[in-house]
Each structure stands twice: as structure tokens, then as C-alpha cells.
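Q: Sequence in, structure out?
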Amino acid sequence: MNPKAPYLNTLVASLMIASSSASLAEDIDTLWDKLTIGVGVAAVDYPHYPGSSQSDTLVAPLPYLEYSGDWLSIDRDGVQAALLKSDRFELDISVSGSLPVNNEDNRLRDGMDDLGLIIEVGPELEVRLSEWGNNSLQLHIPLRAAIELLGEESVNTAGWVFDPRLHYQWNKNDLEFEIDLGAYWASREYNQLIYGVSAVDVTQTRALYSADSGLVGYRFSTTLQYDVNNWTFLAYARYMDLASSANETSPLFEDDSYVLFGLGAIWRFKIPGQ
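A: Exactly. Output:
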């Protein structure tokens, strides 16, 4: 839930491609011809979690992968599988997640268990509402199951999230601009992981708290992408209004706004046809 973390979905997608390599082995030359491969670097400044007043800045290298096949494609927006496709509707796979939090670095969560890497995967229905000129307007309706990764041997289910939003996109030549406006809901299990306080974690300043399912916040995000030669440059920003959060009374909830910024640059060293 932190970033739609730039290209976290691409990492997950790369694993999915690897897992299906056996079925593609007999047509490996065709597969290679359709792949775009690159490397880059991303910098993201993000709150530890929605409701936290503390934030981190992450600068990290990242791999980049694009693939366009008959039924499966992968790009910076994640995985799109042709589960259902028509002139107006498309059913894809939505991938998102949030970065881990070391609770020694967070004042409100000090002494509690760390938050692991959370990966969210599930179906996403895209409805094309309108197209005019270089503009398009869509309704995206994803429902994702969440898992929390804590080390190599610890994988925990973490409920589900519902992230419907209006998606506006403008393209011209090598420039692309996107805006998303929507809301973010989560199950009790997911919210308990973020906002819950068990009996063993109670202190004089941190009361017992059992989280509720419901609204996390209203979201606005925007992405700007510019391609030049073999390079792609990106800027991303997200704002969430958490004032109506179902768990604003949690002792781990301190800030009713969430602001994230990210920048990235990718060099594509293998492009189909080159």
C-alpha cells in the first residue's frame, strides 16, 4: 500500500514468467524476440504506512522487463493476462504491494513485530468509458489477495484489498501522463496487520486495539513517463486522504494524509527488432 511501488509489480511479473518457462521452452526463440530487457534506478520517499507520520527514502536498482505475447503481456503497469477481452471490457491481473518496515525505526511501533514485504495479487476488471484524441478514460476495479513475506521461511496471508479508481491517460509521441482517482478498502485481517495492537504490545502510550475492515482512504495519484531513445524517465506521486479511515482511532494512526514521491530512470539494452 506504500508505493504501487514503482516496478514492484514488474519484479513479481518476472517470477511468473520464470515459473512458466517449461511451457515456453519449445518456442524460446520467439519468446526472446518479444522481450524487452533493461536496468534502472528508482528513488522513492514514502511514509512507513498510511497513518504514519514517519517516512523513509529508498534508492535502489531495479530490473525492467516487457513481454508481449498472444495471451500474456508484462509492462510497467504489471501483468495483463487475456482472461477476458472485448472492445469495452478487459480482465487482467493486478499486482501491487508495500515495502517492509523495521519497527525500531518507527516511534509508534517500537517493540512490535516488523512489517514484512506485502505483495498483493488478484483480478482487475478494466472498463473503457471514453476515448477522444490522445485521451482515454477507464474504470479499474481490482480485488487483490495480500500475503506478507517475513524472511525466507515465513509467508502469512494478510487478507484482501479493494482498490477501485477512475483512470485517465494522455499519450502523445514519447510522452505519457496518467491520473488515478479512487478509494482504498481493506479487510479486517489486512487492517489488523497495519493498525492492530495485541495484548503483548500494549504499553503506557499504546492501548489495545482491534482493527475494523473498511475504508483506508481516498487516493489521488499521477504518473509522467518520457521515452527518449533507449531511455525511460518516470515521475510518480500519490496522495491519500485518510481522515475518514475506518481505523483512525488506532494508537498506530497519527497522520490523516499520506504523500509519496518517486523518480526513476531505465535503460533498455535489449529491444525487439534492434
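Residues 188 and 213 are 4 Å apart (CA to CA).
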